[in-house]
Every structure is written in C-alpha cells, then in structure tokens.
Amino acid sequence: MKASLKKQAEQLLTRDGLFTAAQHLVPQQKLSETAGRLAASQNPLVKKAFVHTFAKAYGISLEEYARKNLGDFKSFNDFFTRELAQDARPIDDTKDGIVSPADGMISQIGHIQQGQILQAKGRDYSVSHLLADTDNKHSSYYEGGSFATVYLAPSNYHRVHMPFDGTLVETRYVPGSLFSVNNVTAANVPDLFARNERLVCVFDTEFGRAVVVLVGAMIVAGIETVATGKIDRSDRIQTLEHTLSLKKGDELGRFYLGSTAIVVMPKSAGVNWAQDMQHGAVVQMGQLLGVADKA
C-alpha cells in the first residue's frame, strides 16, 4: 500500500503530473465561459490582439482557407472556425470507406472489446459511459465494433465533417468536466472522454447505427452542429430527435476552441482500419481511415 502511494506521489511530481493535477484545481466552467466571451468579442482591439497573437504562436497560414487575411474575421471565434477554400480537402471516394471527420492526429484507433474503448496505453473507458447510455440499452450493440479518436490541436481546422453517409436521428448533449484532451491528460485522467462535456450524434447508416461524439475540453467555449446550432450548456442530459440526411464530407459541426471527435462503428460494419492509421498518425479531414466489410 505504501509503495503504491509513493508511486502515485512520484507521478504527481512529474511535469505531466503537475499539469494534470492543476486541471482539477482550476474552475473549468468559469474559465471556459470567460474565454468564450472574449473569443466572441467583435471589439476591434480585442479581436486583433487574439487573432494575431494566436496565428503567430501557432504558425497558422491562411493559404488553404477561403479568407486570406487575418483582418477578414469578425471575431476570434470566426477566425478559429475559419472555412477551408473549395476543394482544399478532397473526400476519399473508396467504396464503403470511412474517412477522418477532422484535421488532427489519431489519438487511438481500434476495436471495442468487453465494452471498452482504448483511451491511452493501459487505460480504457466504457462505451456506455461515452454514449451516456444510462440504461445500457444500446452499448452491447457496439461490442466488437470499431472506434477512431481524432484529436484536434489548436492550429488545426476546427470544423467536423461526416465520416460516412448517414441520417442524423438523435443528438444527446451530456454535461461534464472540461479537462484538456491532449496526450498527457489522456494518459493521466481516467475515463477522460466519458467524463468531459460532449455531444453524441447518432446516425442511421448502411453499416448500421453509427455515432460521432464531439468532446469538449478545457477553454472550449462551445460545440455547434448543423442540426442544433450552438449547444446551450446545462447540468442535465438533453436529447433531441432529427431526420437530417448528410453525405460523407458534409459539415456536421464545429468546436469553438478545439477538442476531439470520436467515431464509433457497430460490429455489423466490419471496419478494417488502414495499417498506417495508428496512434500519432497525422490526418486530414476526408482522408481514408478504413473500409467497412458489411459481409
């Protein structure tokens, strides 16, 4: 017991441990609300300061984007959710292909085993908790299925697109924490993606019922989808029904100050992930992640 406590203390005193511990202490919601107000400000001085400082810090070029000048954006939010130029991201047209929903990095990718999704090396979390399936009615449906977790860094394009053709039938807002979702936090905070605020988007597809989860994070000022508009935060689960058909590559939603998108596919899809799609792989929206084998 003493050895275990000593090991925990040693981990806490590392740089990564201190970064993780600090996130438990800060007022996550208040910090995100304050960041949200500043990010939405159209005051010319506030906007310019945030946009120019951020672009310089992260080396952001507007070459791939529809608007080419930093002064063209109404607010930092407008800049952060900037739209791509036409045809900047070709959508892979492989038959039965599943494409990346966003620009970013593969955090983890694989198959669902014993109801668990891999979060980081040695750390799993429950698919039922991720989907807020409180009655555990649907989670068994995804047993043996597949998942892909894409982390969006601050410099990335921050709109999320459809990884497959499908009809949006339900959105489920789930309140929660707002931990950072980078690799350090994923390795140190148990059940990270099932604890953070998130929006669960459920689709009817030719592969069965599939899900895209938009996960909030530290300083994320909001999540928006084409079906719901910007989500109003609350302390309770909110479920809405929809009948919105979307094609692979269509915009699904966006993050106001980035986060993570998780694709969850049922076993009936029989997804085979591409060999080069592994932890740490850099991906772009529309890039092929894998192919479904419905047979």
Automatic annotation (TrEMBL):
Main location: membrane
GO biological process terms on file: phosphatidylethanolamine biosynthetic process
Entry's EC annotation: 4.1.1.65
Alphabetically ordered keywords of this record: Cell membrane, Decarboxylase, Lipid biosynthesis, Lipid metabolism, Lyase, Membrane, Phospholipid biosynthesis, Phospholipid metabolism, Pyruvate, Zymogen
Membrane topology: Peripheral membrane protein
Residues where Pyruvic acid (Ser) is found: 259
Known function: Catalyzes the formation of phosphatidylethanolamine (PtdEtn) from phosphatidylserine (PtdSer).
PANTHER family: PHOSPHATIDYLSERINE DECARBOXYLASE, PHOSPHATIDYLSERINE DECARBOXYLASE PROENZYME, MITOCHONDRIAL
Record protein name field: Phosphatidylserine decarboxylase proenzyme
Organism: Psychrobacter raelei
Gene name per UniProt: asd
